[in-house]
Design a protein that fits this description.
Elements lengths: L1 H22 L5 H26 L11 H4 L4 H13 L14 H16 L2 H13 L6 H30 L10 H16 L1 H15 L4 H24 L1 H4 L14 H17 L10 H8 L3 H12 L3 H17 L9 H7 L5 H12 L3 H10 L1
Helix pairs in contact: 1-2, 1-10, 2-4, 2-10, 4-7, 4-8, 7-8, 7-9, 9-10, 13-14, 15-16, 15-17
Length: 373
Amino acid sequence: MSWSFLFVIGLVQGIFLIVVFSARNNGNRMASHLLRVLLALFVLSNFDDLLLSTGWYRTAPWLFGYSMAAVFAYGPLFYLYVVATTDSGFSWKRNHWLHFLPTLLNFLLYLPWLVILPPSIRVRFLDGFVAGHLPVRPFNVVFSIMQMLHFALYTRLAFQAVRNARSSPEAVSFQVSLSQRAEWVQTLMVLFFLMLPAWAMLFVWNLVSGHFVVEANFVFTLITSSILYFIAYKMMLHPELVTPDFSKKYQAIRFGEKEEQDLLSQLIRLVEEEKKFTDPDLKLAVMAAQLHITPHRLSMLINNKFGKSFSDFINQYRVQEFIARLNDTRYDHYTLHGLALEVGFNSKSAFNAAFKKITGKTPSDFKEAAGSG
């Protein structure tokens, strides 16, 4: 009865999430579609195990088996969801259907069970499965290994997609930043990755027993259900993260042409002529106050015109000034760190990180290369 209760919870939670995502009109539609199908697979898995744990399969044997037929869809759906969430240029193309070719072949393999076999044979088969009398054959071993390798491949592809998102420069500011998207799907990926050792445990459990153990299936289903609960929890706290769209952060704000040119002239004067960037306490709010605009509008101005955040914009001037002073004999008595403090950096770590990001070299390597040149 405890198994059945847990599966009912998973079912209700999954159906609730599918309804919620279907009712939402905003957000990333492609990511939402993919996630709904993925959630439907979790619901099917819970439903199949609910039939087994309650014995209801004897009443409706034709309802059992659809989750097993779709087992090769987990990996592609999750991978494509990750790409749709982190890649603003992603759109569905016909070649994406090739990811689901193994799913189609597996469905055709299960087709006799789903539509041809008489109910009495299905019931006898499932009775043997639940009782632990169904032997593990070589075909089952090979098939399980194929399933695990297939899922591991798509887990790897999803990991690569997240890494690409983290390493790509964010030239456009979105309402939900690429770093936030990457953090969300990476957290979700940890739970999905747990499916792999769960799958291996299920495989070893059955292999050592020499026959299929229904409780192993139940444990696997509960692990997948935990993903449902996590998505539900995250959706309640941060719904914009689950299916984030790619709306720009500042798309609702506009400058007049003359206003924009005046602000840019003042900004350039402050940083290039007055060298405000040498102030280590310079913050976005301080600079915005000097321009008599809000920090949000200044951030938008810099992002739209220079494709940078405020800190990257200021650090670029600091690094340029550092290089200029490094080549000036009047500053030969300064250490690299001392020179960094002079141009506005307030710590060695911040200076090293900014310098490497802008020049591609560490300060010491840059100085050595300049000296040898």
